Amino acid sequence: MAKRVGVEVSIAIAEAVKLARAEVIPAYPITPQTHIVEHLSELVANGELDAEFIPVESEHAAMSACCGSSAAGARTFTSSSSQGLSLMSEVLYIPAPMRLPIVNVVANRAMSAPISIWNDHQDIMVQRDIGWIQTFAENGQEAVDLVLHAFRVSEDRRVSLPIIVNIDGFTLSHVIEPIEIPDQEEADAYIPPFKPKFKLDPKKPITMGPVGIPEVYTEAKVAHNEALKNSKKVILKAWKEFAEQFGREYHPVESYRTEDAETILVTMGSISETAMTAVDKMRDEGKNVGLVRIRLWRPFPGPEFRKAAGKAKVLAVIDRCLPPGALCGPVGAELRSLFYKIPGSPKIFSFVAGLGGRDVTVARFEEIVDKANKYAKKRPKELYEVIGVREK
Amino acid sequence: MAVNDAIVGWKTITWGCHVMEPGNSVEFRTGDWRSQRPVVDKEKCIKCGMCWIFCPDMAYTQDDEGYYEADMEYCKGCGICAHECPKDAITMVMEEG
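^ Those are the sequences you sent over. The predicted structure of the assembly is below.
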């Protein structure tokens, strides 16, 4: 039986990786790391997890080793953050088109300079187009559940793609929450053994990762993109079966008090819990406000989002990433594309908040809703606004 | 309509772009973009095999008399053999045309 325990989210994620029976864990303890791989190294050293823990020389090597171990047919896990994730960047583009399943938990944090170890989404937005499936967790329980889900989906032969599970650095990675951790039998029932379609095998040699000459490259990239888009069916089915087995339901987007809502806040990650409190407060005050949270970021669930938020008059989209020199943040841009020239679609206003660990409070959400409603009447000069920035 | 120069479709390309047949590089000529070719002066050559050892493409083979000659289907014209030859028996000459 699953046990509900008070545990640090990073430790709980490591326990989930153990329950998933990860076989190879290449990781580098760059600052800022989390307790995820630290705890996994203890589990391996203590003999509680039968896996290879490879203490590589850098995050670049960590992701390289992940590609190799996945290609050899081993269940592969790693975890990273901010600058470390960027150091992986060159290799992060490689496993997805090669159809190599890997699960990577990214504790989202700000990018230097100035040096920061705190939470926002700049690190992962840099890696937006690496071609991996990407999900965002709201709380510790969801982080654990999404990790189990990630192994199941990533290794499904119809998908066979790497997955990043995003958890907010500190806000999730370093807090203690009550979390229900499944037992081994339950995890085994949900995650079947990894049986790759192809693997590196001297008895049956194949070449993985060859040169893609101009006459081939476009087709290889389109084939990968189609696989990524088609993965949504398996992602949804795996969430449905998760609900049947564990009783916790997950969807690509979650709606909170959106019936008849005229203004809808759009968030990703852990600030959504504060946003719900803000929505409750504004509802009590008679304001027609709701919340839609994006859980599945890649492949982007366009139809699901339209269904969840398409009837609102105003969308107030929050990006936790400053888009230097761009017209607006990545989530805002995505939603503007989604609703472009669709008659009767909501007016979209984009906000940047919660950079480098700055709290996004209930009052900030109220400010964002008020501003979005004001801009709906009088168009602002810029396509996005940084919230809570001090001038002097 | 523009000519499509793709040699495979996205629906028919191998899974993950893997090459499923091992050792199929023998089917391809890889030296056709060479700008220089090595020419061996058999008067100077002492059959030491340094060119054969250093050639990064393993293009050199030994003939019946013991001299070494590069296979022009694979030689890239890098000139390492000429540089390493202890007797300066190899000269790099420009490819014509």
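Helices of chain B lie at 50-54, 80-84. DSSP finds two helices and four strands in chain B.

Shout if you want it in another format.
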